[in-house]
Amino acid sequence: MVTPIRRPRAPRRRTAFSLRQLSVSFGVLAIGVTGVGLTLRKAVAAAGAHPGPAVVVGLVVITALAVLPHRRAARTAPHARTSAASVTLAGEPVPAPPVEEVAPSPVEDIDAPPPEYVDPSPVELDDYAEMDADAFEEAVAGLCERDGCAEVQVVGGANDLGADVVAVAPDGRSLVIQCKRYCADNKVGSQDLQRFGGTCFTVHGADVAAVVTTSAFTEPAREYADRCGILCFDHDDLIGWASGTGPAPWE
């Protein structure tokens, strides 16, 4: 706290007694009293002769006497407020008004990783073996579309010539898939691969040919597929593709 420094006041000089000034003051006072008395006497005499103007003059004088104290009070009021403010500033420092703390608004973290993709209608992996042939073909077509293939079509039927799902892979190659929904003890044999191998390239013009099954392949079937360039996706490969932990047939 800063303590203001008070400057010492200069001592007041006492005025010496003067007889001359006292005589002059009494003379002025006597002349003033005499003048007021003569004025009142004439005013009373004029009021007796003309009462109306006298009353008006009296009201004006009374009103002036009543207004004069109020005007003096109004003039001295600002000076009083200024003096009070000066005293306050000269003493203790005026504290600043408290500042209300505003909580910072939450900022979105732009570096946060995007939420993981969740399939709105996931298919349980064990459900593929429980599907019929048509449902299994639709499920394989759904996996192709999910992973970015275009123009996905299910063309399986009596005269499909070995093609169940056709599509255009993300890299632009033509994809032809044959679906084999077999039980675990019923493996895909070499005859199945030979029938598919005779049409997938020459008839359907496949760039990528694959056989996808819920079961497994025999060794002769895998040997034929390797010679012809056909991809064999057994149950484990299908599980990896569907769960995203393994590659797709065109990869």
Q: Give the termini distance in whole angstroms.
A: 81 Å
Mean pLDDT: 74
Task: Outline the low-pLDDT stretches.
Answer: 82-90, 115-122
What is the approximate shape?
Answer: rod-shaped
- Rg computed from alpha carbons, rounded to a whole number of angstroms: 58 Å
Describe the structure.
This protein is an alpha/beta fold and 251 residues long. The chain is built from 6 helices and 5 strands. The protein folds into 2 domains: 21-90, no CATH class; 125-243, Trna Endonuclease, Chain: A, domain 1 (3-Layer(aba) Sandwich). A 5-stranded mixed β-sheet has the order 1-2-3-4-5, with helices on both faces. α4 links the parallel β3 and β4 (208-213). α1 (19-49) crosses α2. Residues 82-90 and 115-122 have low confidence and may be disordered.
Could you list some keywords that capture this structure?
251 residues; alpha/beta; 2 domains; 45% helix; 10% strand; rod-shaped
Q: SSE layout and pairings?
A:
Layout: H1 19-49, H2 51-90, H3 133-146, E1 150-154, E2 165-168, E3 174-180, H4 190-197, E4 208-213, H5 219-228, E5 231-233, H6 235-243
Parallel strand pairs: 3-4, 4-5
Antiparallel strand pairs: 1-2, 2-3
